Amino acid sequence: MTPNISPFIIFFASIITSNMILSNFLGMCSYLSVSTEYKTATGLGMAVTLVLVLTTVVNWFIYTYVIVPLELIYLQYIIFIMVIAALVQILEMGMDRYTPDLHAKLGIFLPLITVNCAILGVTLFMVIRHYSFLQSLLFALGSGFGWWLAINMLAAIREKMAAVKLPPGVKGPALSFIITGIMAMAFIGFSGIFTIQ
Questions:
Q1: Please, are residues 65 and 36 in contact by the beta-carbon 8 Å criterion?
Q2: 2 part of a folded domain
Q3: Where residue 1 falls among pLDDT bands split at 50, 70, 90?
Q4: DSSP state of 120
Q5: Is 195 domain-assigned?
Q6: Nearest to 91, CA basis, from 144, 36, 142, 155
Q7: Distances from the Cα of 91 to the Cαs of 29, 37, 84, 167, 194, in angstroms?
Q8: With 70 as the cut, is the pLDDT of residue 104 above it?
Q9: Overall pTM surpassing 0.85 (yes/no)
Q10: pLDDT at 18 > cutoff 80
Q11: Whose CA is closest to 147, among 22, 39, 59?
Q12: Over 70: is that where the pLDDT of 170 sits?
């Protein structure tokens, strides 16, 4: 049964209060590794958003019209991962062809979008929560924008902090975790406005 939640509430909640990074902590590996430079973080954010939307739409159709009617629920994880891997491969080939500089900067993290748990997480949340097509689409779009926003914010702060002299114990990953924790608290402060379960 589809939950009676406005797709636009789902969209805004997935950006702010149910952010994949800041409230669900999904997709942290590439978030922490690629957030050292704003331009690269923006490129990865766009790629993750595009993959999130495409895979969620394709997986919704496959789940609704293939997996459920043919009673292949036991294969859903394998099918979802195959769709994600195929779409990431197509995206990687396109970026290599049309944006080779960004492709080179993203390096290994572009193919690693395949195993970014935020991508599979959005698809699984869509299935568990019984979202309609429009709810799923806006959930994926909002989750992508939220992930993109979080990585851009961290990259911008880290670029500014690179010029500041910090104690050795706070440099590197420690600083990233501190900044992420503060951003998470700020975003959770909006939880009374938009909430999805």
A1: no
A2: no
A3: low
A4: H
A5: no
A6: 144
A7: 20, 21, 11, 40, 32
A8: yes
A9: yes
A10: yes
A11: 22
A12: yes
- Domain range for 90 is 7-188
Closest of 50, 33, 47, 48 to residue 155, by C-alpha: 33
HSE-CB at 171 with a 13 A cutoff on CA atoms is: 7
Tell me the pLDDT band of 194, cut-offs 50, 70 and 90: low
Q: Is residue 194 part of a domain?
A: no
What sign does the dihedral 114-45-194-5 (CA atoms) show?
Answer: negative
Report the C-alpha gap between 154 and 40 in whole angstroms.
12
**DSSP 3-state helix, strand, coil percentages of the chain (rounded to 5)?**
75, 0, 25
Other CB atoms within 10 Å distance of the CB of residue 155: 22
Structural domains counted in the chain = 1
Tell me, what's the pLDDT at 195? 59
